[in-house]
Amino acid sequence: MSRAAIERSHRSLSLLLVDDDPGFRQAVKRLLEEEAQASVVGEAGDGEEAVRLAHKLRPDVVLMDIAMPRLGGLEAIRRAKAERPETKFIVVTVHAEEAYRRAAADSGADAFVLKKTLATELVPAIRRVTSRG
Q1: What is the pTM of this model?
Q2: What is the pLDDT of residues 1-22, one digit of tens each?
Q3: What is the SS3 assignment for 49-107?
Q4: What's the CATH number of domain 12-129, 3.40.50.2300, 3.40.50.720, 3.40.50.1480, 1.10.287.3510?
Q5: Which of 28, 45, 58, 106 is most buried per CB count within 10 Å?
Q6: Is 37:14 a contact under the CB 8 Å cutoff?
Q7: CA pair distance 133, 98, nearest whole angstrom
Q8: CA distances from 129 to 13, 22, 45, 46, 88 (A)
C-alpha cells in the first residue's frame, strides 16, 4: 500500500449532510458520532446550498436527500459531481421504489440508503463508497 493510501485510510472522513429537515440532520450526526473515522464538516437544507458547500468544503462524502426546496437532490448531485467527480454521494431517502434508485444512479450517486434502514445501512454504505470496509 502506498504512503498516500495509508494516510487516506487513517484520516477522518469529511461528510456533508444535506436534508431539509434539521431534526433529521441532527439524528444523522448523532449516529455518525459513533463512527470514529467520520466528521460532519457542514450541513445544508436545500440542493443549491449543497452544491455551494460541496465546492467550498470539499467533503469526501455527501449524504443527500432527494426531495428538497430550491433544487432537488438528484440535480444537486449532477451539478456537484461535475465540479468534484471524486466526491462520493449517498442518497438518503424515504423513497424505496426502483425508479428512484435508477434515477439516483443516473444522477451520479454512489450509493442509495433508505431512511428507515439508516441505523444499520449508512455506515456500511459510507465504508463501501470510500473503500474503507
Answers
A1: 0.88
A2: 434 443 444 568 999 999 999 9
A3: HHHHHHHHHCCCEEEECCCCCCCCHHHHHHHHHHHCCCCEEEEEECCCCHHHHHHHHHH
A4: 3.40.50.2300
A5: 28
A6: no
A7: 26
A8: 11, 25, 23, 23, 7
